[in-house]
Amino acid sequence: MLKSAGDLIKEAQRHIECVDVQTAKKIYDASPDAVIVDVREAHKAEESKLSNSINISRGVLEYDVHKECPDANTVIITHCAGGGRASLAAHSLKQLGYNRVYAITASFDEIKKVFG
């Protein structure tokens, strides 16, 4: 049986820590070295991005994340436009060995209101 993207997202979410925007902001503010990773495609991040985020598109995350986050204990908060890709990205980061990974499961507009 084939799985849908929704099935993969639900499966990933069982293995990661999903957070709402307010919780993500508290984690970010409490962690001076935290990194917010926007996993949307580069052209979407160029249109509108969070003031303190970096863009590593979901398709190249596993190849490029080590350049920005060389320490496995870095707090990494992933976000996208709605939470699906952020969840898949967070799961991949956990599989790569990152220990402190969170996925924001909210719309980009909600995230932008809180993070700026």
Please give the structural blueprint:
Layout: H1 5-13, E1 17-19, H2 21-30, E2 35-38, H3 42-47, E3 53-55, H4 61-68, E4 75-79, H5 84-96, E5 100-104, H6 108-115
Parallel strand pairs: 1-5, 2-3, 2-4, 4-5
Folded structure, characterized:
It is a single chain. A five-stranded parallel sheet has the order 1-5-4-2-3. It is globular and about 45 Å long. With 116 residues, the protein is α/β, with parallel strands linked by helices. It has a single domain, classed as Oxidized Rhodanese, domain 1 (3-Layer(aba) Sandwich). The chain contains six helices and five strands; from the N terminus they run H-E-H-E-H-E-H-E-H-E-H. Helix 1 (5-13) crosses helix 5 (84-96). It has helices spanning 5-13, 21-30, 42-47, 61-68, 84-96, 108-115, and strands spanning 17-19, 35-38, 53-55, 75-79, 100-104.
Question: Could you name the key traits of this structure?
Answer:
globular; 116 residues; alpha/beta
Please provide a brief summary of the model.
The protein is α/β, with parallel strands linked by helices.
Distance between the termini: 42 Å
- Strand adjacency order, main sheet: 1-5-4-2-3
Q: From the alpha carbons, calculate the radius of gyration and give it in angstroms.
A: 13 Å
Class per helix and strand makeup: alpha/beta
- The beta-strand count equals 5
CATH architecture: 3-Layer(aba) Sandwich
Mean pLDDT over all positions: 96
Q: Please bin the fraction of helical residues.
A: 40-55%
Number of helices: 6
CATH superfamily: Rhodanese-like domain
* Shape label: globular
Low-confidence stretches: none
What name does the CATH topology carry?
Answer: Oxidized Rhodanese, domain 1
